[in-house]
């Protein structure tokens, strides 16, 4: 099990997601993943600032997970995540610095935690 580096409110429980962390701030970030192919999205855990990140729509169903800093489990992003069964935590906070893009992370929706994959 990895080292817990953050926490959030699970949108639903009973599933975990793992992939490389990537911040999404603009539609251009989504276009870059689309250009890389479907496998790129499936290996990505998206980190977004708020629940209004509707620009994720073209890749959302393919993502390995979603972490959202602002918003709650009743937000549109949370509802869509539930519908697609995408592991998702809302109101995410990190214990110190956020892991950089490309860091392998695991989302545990039972515990509401984010772990750095393979860390002690």
CATH first level: which class?
Answer: Alpha Beta
| Separate helix tally | 3
Largest sheet report: 7 strands, mixed, barrel
The number of distinct structural domains comes to 1
Write the CATH architecture name: 3-Layer(bba) Sandwich
Work out the strand percent. Answer: 25-35%
Overall average residue pLDDT: 91
CATH topology: Glucose Oxidase, domain 1
Structural class: alpha/beta
Per DSSP E runs of 2 or more residues, the count of β-strands stands at 7
Q: What is the end-to-end distance?
A: 7 Å
Strand order of the largest sheet: 1-5-4-3-2-6-7
User: Which outline best applies?
Assistant: globular
Unreliable runs, pLDDT <50, ≥5 residues? none
CATH-wise, what's the superfamily? Phosphohistidine domain
Helix content: 10-25%
Order of helices and strands: EEHHEEHEEE
CA radius of gyration: 13 Å
Characterization of this structure:
- The structure is a single chain.
- This protein has 120 residues and is an alpha/beta fold.
- The chain has a single domain, classed as 3-Layer(bba) Sandwich (Glucose Oxidase, domain 1), CATH 3.50.30.10.
- It contains 3 helices and 7 strands.
- A 7-stranded mixed β-barrel has the order 1-5-4-3-2-6-7.
- Strand 6 and strand 7 form a beta hairpin.
- It is globular and about 30 Å long.
């Amino acid at each position: 099990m990895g080292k817990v580096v953050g926490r959030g409110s699970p949108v639903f429980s009973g599933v975990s997601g793992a992939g490389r962390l990537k911040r999404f701030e603009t539609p251009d970030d989504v276009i870059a993943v689309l250009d890389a192919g479907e496998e790129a999205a499936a290996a990505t855990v998206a980190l977004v600032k708020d629940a209004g990140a509707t620009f994720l729509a073209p890749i959302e169903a393919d993502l390995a997970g979603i972490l959202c800093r602002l918003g709650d489990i009743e937000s549109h992003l949370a509802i869509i995540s539930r519908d697609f069964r995408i592991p998702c935590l809302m109101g995410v906070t990190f214990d110190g610095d956020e892991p950089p893009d490309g860091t392998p992370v695991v989302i545990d929706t039972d515990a509401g935690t984010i772990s750095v994959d393979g860390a002690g």
